[in-house]
Specification:
By secondary structure, this protein is of the alpha+beta class. It contains six helices and five strands; from the N terminus they run H-H-H-E-H-H-E-E-H-E-E. The strands form two sheets. Strands 1-3-2 form a three-stranded antiparallel sheet, with helices on both faces. Strands 4-5 form a two-stranded antiparallel ribbon. A hairpin with a 2-residue loop joins strand 2 and strand 3. The longest helix has 53 residues. The protein is elongated and about 100 Å long.
Length: 196
């Protein structure tokens, strides 16, 4: 705790008397109690200073640690919402993003890759993964910035089309079908068409 004004004045007086007594050799015996008080006061001031520095450093370390934890938590939350294969939202991320937009009108477009099991069985799972990545990329390129795309699992994708008009959502769905079917995809030893 800090010193009260009265204690501060007493400490100043003790220091002044100590200096005065040390200046005159005959008063050394009388100065002994004041010298002890001055020594204790000096030690108390040093301890208080060290404690203040310690608590300040502790506060800084705690603040830095909390900032790092918040950053790590934010990164983990973001990663938990992304599909690691396609780098688009997963089901959890899609539902979270959609929950923030409850009042907006729109349509869901559910997309399934045709005969995906045949691709996996014929060319292997690595080829299937490449197809999933390429389909996700084409979907993102075709969608408008306000639309939301996600991979719900397997070969199933879901798009939220932000529009109150069915005709606009239908046009977007047709553009997505065309974007996937118009160019062949790379498969081992050949190129193949994929449809949705």
């Amino acid at each position: 705790r800090g010193l009260s004004p009265r204690e501060g004045a007493q400490m100043k007086l003790a220091l002044a008397l100590t200096v005065l007594c040390l200046s005159f050799p005959g008063t050394a015996v009388a100065a002994e109690p004041w010298r002890q008080i001055a020594t204790h006061a000096t030690m108390l001031a040093m301890v208080l200073s060290v404690n203040l520095i310690f608590f300040f450093v502790l506060f800084l370390v705690s603040a830095i640690s909390n900032k790092r934890k918040q950053s790590a938590l934010s990164t983990l939350t973001e990663q938990a919402c992304l599909d690691p294969l396609t780098a688009i939202l997963n089901r959890r991320g899609f539902e979270r993003r959609l929950s923030h937009q409850q009042s907006l009108p729109g349509f869901l477009i559910v997309i399934d890759i045709d005969d995906f099991k045949v691709i996996n069985d014929s060319y292997g799972h690595d080829a299937g993964d490449s197809i999933l990545q390429a389909v996700a990329s084409r979907l993102k390129q075709t969608l408008r910035p306000e639309d939301i795309v996600s991979r719900f699992g397997g070969e199933e994708f879901v798009v939220f089309c932000k529009t109150p008009h069915l005709k606009e959502a239908t046009r977007l769905g047709n553009r997505l079908v065309q974007a996937i079917a118009e160019r062949p995809f790379e498969l081992p030893e050949q190129r193949g068409l994929v449809t949705i």
